Q: What sequence folds into this?
């Protein structure tokens, strides 16, 4: 009987630990805002095209992108042979996509983005440190 209680206790402890781990990892793909990473699924008229380097080099196709304040859909192309991720951060903004695979195109929309300077980052492990960062200037 004592062994049975120990097993139940171990299972409960494991379930609690798993819950804590999953809660802590909940922001891995979405910055803590659910699966959409804080992005809208709506595609809007203003679109900014961004592409990863097709050779697999850890950089975006441009160092600086420009947009007008308001609703913006970022069309992020990954023609490279490796996975990437899309993060937009700046004053009051921290939006993170999930990782996406090679040879894919993804759209991430931000509603009512104010004027300012933002960073476009690939936060896939090691990519940001290698320099996969660009600037977005919103006027």
A:
């Amino acid at each position: 009987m004592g062994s049975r209680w120990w097993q139940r206790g171990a299972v409960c402890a494991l379930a609690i630990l798993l819950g804590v781990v999953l809660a802590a990892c909940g922001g891995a793909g979405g910055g803590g805002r659910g699966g959409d990473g804080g992005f809208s699924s709506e595609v809007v008229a203003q679109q900014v095209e961004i592409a990863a380097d097709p050779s697999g080099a850890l950089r975006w196709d441009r160092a600086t992108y420009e947009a007008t304040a308001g609703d913006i859909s970022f069309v992020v192309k990954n023609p490279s042979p490796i996975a990437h991720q899309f993060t937009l951060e700046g004053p009051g903004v921290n939006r993170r996509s999930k990782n996406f695979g090679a040879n894919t195109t993804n759209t991430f929309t931000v509603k009512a983005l104010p004027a300012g300077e933002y960073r476009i980052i690939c936060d896939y492990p090691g990519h940001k440190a290698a320099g996969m960062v660009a600037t977005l200037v919103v006027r």
Summary: The chain is about 15% helix and 35% strand. The chain has a mean pLDDT of 83.
